[in-house]
Amino acid sequence: MYSANVLNSLNLMWINQTTKTTMKVLFLLFSLSFPFIVTAQYCKVKVKALEGKYDGGCKKDFADGIGKAIGDDRYVGAFKAGYPNGKGKYTWKNGNWFDGYFKNGALEVEGIMHLIRYSKNDSIVTGFWKNNVYLGEYEKPYKVHMKTSMVYSVDVTEEKNYGRNQITITLQSVSGGSVDIHGHIPKEEITDIQIRKGSFRERSIVDNMQKRNIYILWDVIFPFWAIFKIGQDNVEVEFLKEGTWTVAIRMRG
Question: Rounded to two decimals, what is the model's pTM?
Answer without folding.
Answer: 0.59
